Amino acid sequence: MKEIHSPLTRRANVEKITSYDVEEICRGWEEQFGLDVLNEFHGHKRIELFRCKDTDLLFFHPWDVLGSAELYAALQEFDWFYMRDKWEHQIALRDLSCCKSVLEIGSGTGSFVQSAMKLGLNIRGIELNPAAVAVAESKGLPIFMQSLQSAVEQYAGSMDGVCSFQVLEHVPDPADFIKAAIDLLKPGGVLIFSVPNSESFLKHQYCLLDMPPHHMTRWSAKAFSALTKIFPLEIQSVKNESLAACHINGYLDTYADHFRSNTSFGRLMFNRVTVPVYRVFLKMGLRRFLTGQTIYASFRKL
Questions:
Q1: Region of residue 56 (phi > 0: left; psi between -120 and 50: alpha; otherwise: beta)
Q2: Span 282-301, mean pLDDT?
Q3: Where do the H-state alpha helices sit in 47-129?
Q4: Are 104 and 141 spatial neighbours (Cβ–Cβ below 8 Å)?
Q5: Is the peptide bond prior to 196 cis by the omega test (within 30 degrees of 0)?
Q6: Are strands 233-242 and 102-105 parallel, antiparallel or unpaired?
Q7: Which of 208, 183, 192, 205 is nearest to 251 (CA)?
Q8: Helix, strand or coil for residue 274?
Q9: Neighbours of 45 (CB within 10 A)
């Protein structure tokens, strides 16, 4: 068997966590989204989830099961795919407020670029989904169909800020992606990532969107902190999103399934009477004290 290396450290200090049946994944996509994703797996029968012991990064193998442009064009038809108002956008706008030039990697249809321009930021974006770029262009936004490597060749060392929201988890080679993002920055420049938080309620879910062909890696605060040992970065802040109102039902369903299947106490705590009560309290505001879906990390280039 070929030795598996961490996509961050390039070392074989990894452990296998679990594996998934591709046919089961494909059935799930057909049932939930009405999409046939079999060709996205290129004949592989199983995919495997590993953990990098050095960084705590979770990653999937094989590497070639990342989503195609056709898949993302199909997902774009769902209202929830390119959400306009993300929690992390508001934090990033504050963190980038002193930057004279900003590049967003993976701009989608341009909601963040549009918000940043309204505040006077000199920002442009790059995107690989042609359908998303077409929407952005129709709004007159400076978002271009361009690869990250091409952007580095054009803008190397010239940006005060680089940001990327809900993109890093889709990349099979995060080390190259992060290095390229750093190469875009001036010394002292700000680098921002937001991704799904693998230590949130997501860790108890069987979530089709949190595995190939959609996501290739899973990130935690520990994994982000480890980047400072690999790259010329100084961490500025790591923030967890509070549980969003739109995720209350998923949060409760996840923990109800998890605890009911593991302990008798869990079955007592999550039943037909208690779960609706929990839902009421979460909607009243208790959700703000609970960890939600997204983690945000801000760095400065050394």
A1: left
A2: 96
A3: 69-75, 87-95, 111-118
A4: no
A5: no
A6: unpaired
A7: 205
A8: helix
A9: 9
Structural domains counted in the chain: 3
Q: Do 228 and 256 sit in the same domain of this protein? A: no
pLDDT of 263 > 90? The answer is no
CA-CA distance, 242 to 18, in Å (whole number)? 28
Q: Which residues pair with 161 in a beta bridge?
A: 102, 190
pTM summary value = 0.93
Please, what sign has the CA dihedral across residues 97, 102, 105, 109? positive
d(CA 130, CA 144): 9
State the pLDDT at residue 80. Answer: 76
Q: Sign of the CA dihedral 233, 234, 236, 241?
A: positive
Could you check whether the bond before residue 62 is cis, i.e. omega within 30 degrees of 0?
Answer: yes
| 3-class secondary-structure state, position 103 | strand
User: Do residues 137 and 162 both lie within one domain?
Assistant: yes
> Which pLDDT belongs to residue 83?
67
Give residue for tokens 């193998």.
61
Judge if 226 and 136 occupy the same domain: yes
* pLDDT at residue number 212: 97
Q: What CATH number is given to the structural domain containing 125?
A: 3.40.50.150
Domain assignment present for residue 7? The answer is no
Maximum CA pair distance of the chain? Answer: 60
Identify any residues that bridge with 217 across adjacent strands, giving them in sequence order: 59
Domain span at 281 = 245-288
Upstream peptide bond of 7 is cis (omega within 30 degrees of 0)? no
What are residue 19's DSSP bridge partners? Answer: 48
Tell me, what DSSP letter sits at residue 236?
E
Give the Cα separation of 128 and 226 in Å (integer). Answer: 28
Determine, yes or no, domain membership for 76: no
